[in-house]
Amino acid sequence: MNSVIEKLAEVETTAETIVEHARQQKSEIERQIQEERDQFDRDLEEETQKKLEKIKEKSQQEVEKVLDRERKKNQTAIDALKQEYEENHEIYAEEIVRHMIEV
Hints:
This is ATPase. The protein contains one helix and no strands. It is rod-shaped and about 140 Å long. By secondary structure, it is mainly alpha-helical. The N and C termini lie far apart (about 135 Å).
């Protein structure tokens, strides 16, 4: 009878050891999973920031292209107005004077 009780006690001790070992493994696995999750989040954040930076750079380049085109168009218009003034400023002045005299 004592040997049966001893065997049961031994089985119980072994079972407790196995359960404790399983708890430790579970805890370690949970820690590893959390670590991997955290690393995934960091990697994703880094990748997202890189993509956003590329989008920002591309947008900035597009804005610069549009601004350059507009500057060139404006400069062309200014040059045309200057040319017209150079060619016709005496006529404009005479018309202004004549209009002032007529009034």
